[in-house]
Amino acid sequence: MFKAKILFIGPSESGKTVLANFLSDTTETVGGEYKPTQGVRILEFESQNEGSSDKYSTCEVELWDCAGDFKFESCWPALMKDSNGVVVIFNPDVPSHLKEIETWHSMFISSQGLQDTQCLLIAHHKPGSGAEEGRLPLASQLSRLPLIHSNLEDEPEDVRQAFRRYLGNIVNTLSESREREEMSIIT
């Protein structure tokens, strides 16, 4: 079984913790008053993968719910170490988030040289926002990444399925990397 370290990053108040709790089946603080994450929260769980080469595979997931406040920027290199994937979460109803996620991309994705398949953008619509799932004006480097719209009020299982497909991509990347490593030892 593969173990994947996935970072949840993005602007403050974008819904990272709500999504992390939902996807890990953690019911710690669902709803209620907003409490900004301090540094990072690490959630560990097992997940079925969709789309991985092993159809029935499960994966141990370490989901790192990272604070969106730049006062924790000095910790980010330590958080990035050995990460297998990055999920950028933002609220598409907040215009500044579209600009801010470019910075998150630069600091967490470009700097690590991650492949597009190791990344995911989630446009998280807060309850009652009534937002449309239209095309977003994303910067060119972001428009190459897979994008899903999340609405936990209306379509929670769609979000879970999309995340499982993303994990399948991560497992495929880990499997290919392991195979290359094994072949280099053999030859």
Task: Give a description of the structure.
This protein has a six-stranded mixed sheet with strand order 2-3-1-4-5-6, with helices on both faces. The two termini are 25 Å apart. 34% of the residues lie in helices and 22% in strands. It has helices spanning 16-23, 76-80, 95-109, 140-143, 156-186, and strands at residues 2-9, 40-48, 58-66, 85-90, 119-124, 147-150.
Which tags fit this structure?
six-stranded mixed sheet; alpha/beta; 187 residues
Arithmetic mean pLDDT: 87
Could you give a short account of the major beta sheet?
6 strands, mixed
Distance between the termini: 25 Å
Q: Please, what is the oligomeric state?
A: single chain
Series of secondary-structure elements, N-terminal to C-terminal: EHEEHEHEHEH
The radius of gyration computed from the alpha-carbon positions, rounded to a whole number of angstroms, is 16 Å
**CA-based shape:** globular
| Order of strands in the sheet with most strands | 2-3-1-4-5-6
Structural class: alpha/beta
Flag low-confidence runs: none
The total of helices stands at: 5
